Amino acid sequence: MFFITLFFSNVGLASDCTSTDDSYGKSVLGSNNTAQEAYDFGLKIQSLVRAKDIKGLFDLVVPGELIGGPRKSFVKNKSFDEIFSKEWVKAVLSSKPDCRPVGWRGYMLADGKIWFNPSTGGSFYIVTIHDAKQEE
After folding, report:
1. Which of 62, 71, 117, 125 makes an SS bond possible with 106, Cβ 3.0 to 4.6 Å?
2. Using an 8 Å Cβ cutoff, are 129 and 69 in contact?
């Protein structure tokens, strides 16, 4: 009975990231966000990509416009498939979210197809989306 109680009491304590990941992210980015929060934000992005929810994805973009990638007004009346290729989707969905930022650049998915950073308000936002369809 002790084993069963111990097993079920630890279910919510699992983490994909370490305290070292936390320390590194906080020191490099000066953020109070945890590594697990960054990892979970990466999972949230993947969930929106899996659902082909372009509005939800662009709701996570930094206020204003992306540093790199399509403008919000460009994607506003477009379908997900008009902006993102099947290869792009496959790359984003098959990557594992990072627990550590890539130096001062922030966190990435799919070798940099999506970059995101913590905000001063405690959440995260997408700053760059590479390899999406661009305006001509």
Report:
1. 117
2. yes
Torsion of CA 79, 85, 87, 91, to 10 degrees: -60
Query: Whose CA is closest to 125, among 107, 103, 100, 99?
Result: 107
Burial status of residue 44 (CB atoms within 10 A of its CB: 0-12, 13-18, 19 or more): middle
**CB neighbour list of residue 131: distance below 8 Å, 6 or more residues apart:** 85, 88, 113
Q: What is the pLDDT of residues 4-42, one digit of tens each?
A: 444 444 444 568 899 899 899 888 888 888 999 999 999
- Please report where in the chains the tokens 């496959």 appear, as a residue: 90
Least confident of 3-12, 91-100, 103-112: 3-12
Closest by CA to 63, choosing from 121, 12, 104, is 121
Half-sphere exposure of 45 (CA within 13 A, CB side): 33
Global pTM exceeds 0.70: yes
